[in-house]
Every structure is written in C-alpha cells, then in structure tokens.
Write a structure and sequence with these properties.
Layout lengths: L2 E4 L9 H16 L3 E4 L13 H11 L23 H13 L3 E4 L3 H5 L16 H9 L5 E4 L5 E6 L3 E6 L7 E3 L7 H11 L4 E5 L6 H11 L5 E5 L2 E2 L15 H6 L4 H9 L14 H7 L10 E2 L2 H14 L2 H15 L7 H9 L8 H9 L18 H16 L6 H15 L3 H13 L8 H8 L1 H19 L1
Parallel strand pairs: 1-2, 8-9, 10-11
Antiparallel strand pairs: 3-4, 4-7, 5-6
Helix pairs in contact: 1-10, 6-7, 9-11, 12-13, 12-14, 15-16, 15-17, 15-19, 16-17, 16-18, 17-18, 17-19, 18-19
Bound molecules: glutamic acid.
Glutamic acid binds next to helix 6.
C-alpha cells in the first residue's frame, strides 16, 4: 500500500510550492489506491506562526485534497503533530547512541558560535569518556545528540533527479535532539516517515542535499529507505524562486483574486508534470487517473498568471449552468437594477465570455444605462457597415420591430432575418447596427435579437431611435 505524507511546518501561509507538493503527494497516493497523510512538523517552536495550521487544513480542503489521516481526523499512526510525539524521538536517538551511530554533545552556544556558518562541528565531544558523559548527564548539563556521520559516500536514487552520490565528508554531524529535548526536523522526519510507514517521500528539492543524512539514519536503524521524489523549483515572472516576501501570490491570494480553487489545482498540477497528451484541463479525478510519477520534470517551471487565467476561463465555461448561477446571480443582482430583466438568461450569456466572475458587471452595465457612445461604433469593416447604411438599416429595423406583436426571441429573430432577405443585404449589415444601438458598446454578451428580447420592446425601440438620432446628427 502506497502511503505519502504532506509534512508542512506551520510557519505561515501556504505558498504555491507547498500546495504543489501536497497535490503530487495526494495524486500519487490516490493513483495507486494508497493513503495520503497530513503531518504537522512543528518541532521548531520559534518559527511557529499562529493560525497556520488552520490555513493548512483549509487550503487542503478547499483544494479538494482530502487526507486520510491527520491531526484533526486521527488515524492508526497518530499523533500527527510532531510536538505531540516528543517522547518518541529521544528513545530512538538513545538507541543510536548505544549503537555508536550518534553521540552526546555538551558544547554550549559559545563553543558552537566559534565555528563559522559553513564549518562542520569539530567532534570534540566525541572524545568524552563514558564516565565523563554520565557525570555531565547526572549534573543536568544541557546537551544535544548528534548523528555520527561515517566515512565513505552515500548513494541514492531520486525518481526525478536520478542517481545521486555524495561524499560523506560534506555532511555535518547534524543535531538530532536539541537542548530543549525536541528533535530537529532532520531527525523527526525520518523517525515519523518510518513509523507512519511512508513509502514515497515527495518534497521540494531543497531537501535533496540533506537526503544522504536521512539515508544514513535509515541505515543505522536498518530501516527500509522510502522512494524519493524531489520536485524542481517554481519560478516567478522574474525567474526567481517564488516567495511571499517577493510579493508572489499564495493560494489564498489567488482565490481572493478571483481564481477558482479547481483551476488553481489544475494549473499547479502542470508545474513540473506533463500529461501524456496535449490536454491541459483536468478535473481532480482525471488527474488522479492520469498522474504518473515518470512524467515529472527536473527543470524548474515558471508560474504563468496568463495561463492560469486561461485555465480559469475554461473552468468557468465548463461549469454546469446551476453551478455558474450560484456564483453569477448574486453579482448580477447587484449589477443590474432594471426590473424585469431575465438574469438567468443573462447568466447564460456571460458564462462563456469571462475569465473571472468579477468581470460580469462590466459586461452587463449597458442594461441599466445605455453608455454614451460615438457614431464611429457603427462602422465595422468585417460587417461591411458604415454610418450611412447603419442609419438606413436601423430605420428599417425600427419599423419592423415596432410592428411586432409577439416580442420573443423567435419572432424578433425572424423579423430581422426577413428584413435582411427582403433588403438583400448581409446579416451583419442589419445585426451590427441593431446590436450597437442596443448596447452602445463594441462588444456585448449576445447578439441583436437576444438583446431586443432581453431589454424588452419599449426599451429596444427607444435605443434604436436614439441610435438613429445619433447617426442623423453625425451625418448632417
Ligand atoms: N517540514 C518540512 C517543510 O515544511 C517538510 C519537508 C519534507 O516534506 O520532508 O518544508
């Protein structure tokens, strides 16, 4: 059974890279019928930010990434918060000490401060005798436990970055248990991944260089090493690693900007993974089916807001009419105050024309009030219209529409089509001027006949008369 885990530290908001990690972990688990686990890594209490655990829960739920085990829902391998597993780690560290794979270090801050940032610990506590260690422990001297890195080299396979070999010389005797008794991230993640039976470790490639140290720990315990999948960077528009500090949007920011969670999830899936065919629009169940860890790329991917915008528009178009109405009707109700307007049909008209819900008001503003527009709007090369023929055709339209008794789409449509035929003109030469007179805009969410039906007979005729007046004074 494949088990993956998302193991965020509660240090703030959820950035896009984190969400991609969570998504890939979820997809790999679900693709193989496995389980996806949420584990909160809060051993670094200094970096704790209030509210971030809630933000993590909310983000995963909003993104549709339901975890099978986690802090709030429990599971067989709990607790799922590292600070609540405090007692587990020390015992394992002591086991390593007993086997000569780790050692007590009593060097206080002062002696460590003497080392420069990139200098390795000089192992001076490795020379302490068993009696000296016992005496120090008995006196309550503060200590840390360090991993004893053996000589040699460490080799492992990463599914994305391939075969990796590191000379152990490059590795520091890292701290496993800190002086506050809590494990470091580096130690806790190994213990927890083992105890929680995680089979695939998926995370950002900033952990690639630490992985040999983790593998040495697995070896020291004679535990099975998980499959590793390290993910490449996501870059912002300036080609830098995305970060909140540089003003790059978090998941929450994107939702606040009007992106749909499903669209963001779809887009993020493409940042480092390429589907087998050219399709780029996937629902979450489709992603589960198609996601395949062999199609991950090690090249960094660039976050492209324009592409996300396009995907958002595709999602809006694909929504069932009722689902779209649930989003659009509240906006339409406050944007359109004219009584008697069929907002459900307006909703249908705008659905295919927007990338964001917030674009709706500007599309329908002409309903309440005909905008001031200039006569040049009537000139349209492709429609073969100009101010003169528009004036003539508007007059014809006014007469025919005035005489219509049944004001519905079919009758209006037939009336205008009949006129086109009897005048021997192109469709556009009739429809463009009528559409323009009714909307006062170079584009509208529907054509001439639909606009007539929407606005009603009186308002339609009034606007056509205004168009005629405008053109007459322009041509005078
Ligand atoms: N707590 C680490 C982080 O938030 C997790 C790294 C991992 O997945 O192992 O970056």
């Amino acid at each position: 059974m494949i088990r993956t885990r998302f193991a965020p530290s509660p240090t703030g908001y959820m950035h896009i890279g984190n969400l991609r990690t969570a998504l890939y972990e979820y997809l790999i688990a679900k693709h193989y019928g496995g389980r996806f686990i949420l584990r909160i890594e809060d051993t670094d209490q200094n970096r704790w930010v209030d509210g971030s655990v809630e933000a993590i829960h909310n983000t995963l739920i909003t993104a549709g990434l339901r975890y099978d085990e986690g802090p709030d829902i429990g599971g067989e391998y709990g607790p799922y918060v590292q600070s609540r597993r405090k007692d587990i780690y020390l015992k394992y560290a002591q086991e390593l000490v007993a086997n000569g794979k780790a050692y007590y270090c009593f060097c206080g801050k002062e002696c460590l401060d003497a080392l420069t940032e990139h200098e390795k610990y000089d192992r001076r506590c490795l020379n302490l005798t068993a009696e000296e260690i016992q005496a120090k422990l008995a006196s309550g001297a503060p200590y840390v436990i360090r991993q004893l890195i053996p000589d040699g080299e460490t080799r492992f396979l990463d599914l994305v970055f391939g075969d990796i070999t590191i000379n152990n010389d490059e590795l520091d005797d890292q701290v496993l248990i800190k002086s506050d008794g809590l494990p470091t991230y580096n130690f806790a993640n190994v213990i927890d991944d083992h105890l929680m039976e995680i089979t695939h470790v998926i995370r950002g490639n900033e952990y690639l260089s630490s992985t040999p140290k983790y593998n040495l720990l697995y070896d020291a315990f004679r535990w099975k090493i998980p499959v590793y999948i390290h993910l490449p960077l996501i870059l912002n528009a300036n080609g830098e690693k995305m970060s909140k500090r540089k003003g790059d949007a978090s998941f929450e920011d994107l939702l606040a900007q009007g992106f749909l969670p499903e669209a963001v999830v779809n887009y993020i899936a493409l940042l480092g993974w390429s589907p087998a065919d050219n399709n780029e629009i996937f629902s979450l169940p489709e992603l589960i089916e198609q996601f395949d860890e062999t199609r991950l790329s090690k090249a960094p991917s660039a976050f492209d807001t324009r592409k996300l915008t396009w995907i958002n528009g595709e999602y809006i178009k694909k929504l069932a009419p009722e689902a779209f109405q649930a989003m659009s009707l509240p906006v339409l109700k406050s944007a359109v105050k004219t009584p008697g307007i069929d907002l459900v049909s307006v909703s249908e008209m705008v659905q295919t024309r927007i990338n964001f819900i917030y674009e709706i008001p500007q599309l329908v503003d002409f309903i309440d009030k005909l905008p001031d527009y200039g006569a040049e709007l009537y000139t349209h090369k492709k429609m073969k219209t100009n101010t003169e023929n528009s004036l003539a055709n508007l007059k014809h339209a006014l007469t025919v529409l005035y005489g219509l008794n049944l004001w519905d789409l079919t009758h209006i449509h037939d009336a205008l089509a009949g006129l086109v035929e009897s005048l021997g003109i192109k469709n556009g030469q009739m429809l463009w001027p009528v559409r323009t007179a009714l909307s006062g805009k170079p584009s509208s969410p529907c054509g001439a006949a639909e606009l007539c039906a929407l606005l009603g007979k009186d308002e339609s005729l009034k606007r056509i008369q205004m168009g005629i007046a405008l053109l007459e004074s322009y041509l005078m």
